[in-house]
Here is the input.
Amino acid sequence: MPTTIITNKESLMMHIDCAIAQESDQWPELDFKHIEKTITATLKAAEFEEESSEYEISLLLTDDIGIQALNREYRDKDKPTNVLSFPQDDPFAAQAGILGDIILAYETIKREAIDHKKSFDDHLTHLIIHGTLHLIGYDHITENEAQIMEALEVKILSQFGIKNPYDFSENCEKLTEAC
Here is the structure.
């Protein structure tokens, strides 16, 4: 599949290049401008500013088999997941604004959207935000880290008119363990 490069030149203080590679043909046609706006909104909401005002992120749109292989290799978890993030750890690349890679699995995202009664696009937006936050150092290993990261995700999602994904009250019949 071809790689799509999205360049945000409209942003006054931040320039985002997003390379998108599609490994699975299951993915529907996506709004690449929305993806770029989501990444830009995430970096701005997190008040992320490094030495560069130009940033690069790569997205890989894959399937459950592809993400399971990466999850097994890099996290020792032999199962598919919705999103993986690989922050750039090369100091020279980081200085050049290369933030890292986000990998998204179509089947898992679709299944979760159905299970949680969300639109696919809203769930995908959430996971792009989540993955981008991981690239810039946010995590959810401890309860405190999770609260900080989730609050920021909810704030960014609200900019797009998307409901709080951590409010399970509407889905209690499906997610009884979360209620």
